[in-house]
Amino acid sequence: MTKADIDAATAIIVAADRKVEINRFDGKPVIFRKVADGINMADELIRQAAEGEAKTFHASESTHEEDSSNESLGRQIYKHLMNGVSHMLPFVVAGGMLIAISFFWGINSADPADPSFNEIAHFLNTLGGLAFAMMLPVLAGFIGQSIADTPGLVVGAMGGVFANPGILTAFNQEGYFATAAPSGFLGALVAGFLAGGIIWLLKKAFAWLPKSLEGMKPIFIYPLFGVLLMGLAMFFVVNTPMGMIMDALTNGLASIPSELGVVLGFIVGAMMSIDMGGPLNKAAYVTGTALVTQANGAGSDVMAAVMVGGMVPPMAIAISATLNRNLWPEAQRNSAMVNYVMGAAFITEGAIPFAASNPVRVIPSLAIGAGVAGALSMFFNCVSYVPHGGIFAVLTNGVTNPVQYVIAWLVGSVVGALLLNFFLKRDPKAK
Fold first, then answer.
1. What percent of the chain has pLDDT over 90?
2. In terms of domains, do 276 and 236 share one?
């Protein structure tokens, strides 16, 4: 939004499940609600805003989003987590697509020891790997930033680095650092929340300093002691147990029999479409992403099931509108067709407006279709080497058994579309 947009607004509605920049709304009537309310109570929120029921927001009073004292602990944790995940995703997308493109010359074309080695593939694969290396520091850093502002960002980001000491291979590691155990994705999550606790502790510890030295705290005291404490905590307390848990999770999933693997594929695929961007969706996605990262280039069948499950909801919406153009209200028909592209690009959120219009009938239909796609992906032994990209990852050899993978996607999408037609035509409110 431009300044002119904000100045001209009667009121502003902020529906967010993570920390967003709100100081620009200083002096304007603002309504702060969670994302679910923005989707399910849009008419009511707009009515409140239009009728002057919004309270005037003053940045100087630090009334951030909703008063945290009125939020449950679970919701506060979720908001901090989403702040980290949303900032991490662009790195995941960039890294994943660059790695996927490098596979165009062959799965092993980035390996100098392989006969298929190609300089361009090696360059693209290295760039993608560097973007991936930033994933954990960004995740932990922005969780910390959500809890403790800029000092939390610095300390959390370093915690993310410490969660994966392999990032430090450019340095001449000796002593403890040469054998430090990585804690991976789970360690980065712990580091993000730990950063908030460390900054809180440091604020208490240095509260006695005179006001004349207040400016030193965020640029010197908090970063210095914060990174030191984070390093001690990660290397000597967190990494070993978190690494063991991550290894157990990875090995456990890898050891699941093929029959139960199909069930697992159905579950993670369905999770991607139940709340489309919410906790269940993110839980499935970050698990798949973590497994890809831990696989060290071997890929993950769970990630393949997760991605195809996320590709189904928009595609199912588009197919349903193609089969029956009167299934959706006129205002939604054109955007329904755009979902062909959204589904292909693995942008699950394209289905949100349609799910919100009739969640009782739409969400189960999409979840079953996505679950079928995930189950078929596991049945076909599809493995994804990258955590994003959709059909573009398939076209660049980022997914094994690409023909079967596309079949799984299309079958799941058709199942979802047929269920939508079946249930929505029986809805007396459907137009």
1. 29
2. no
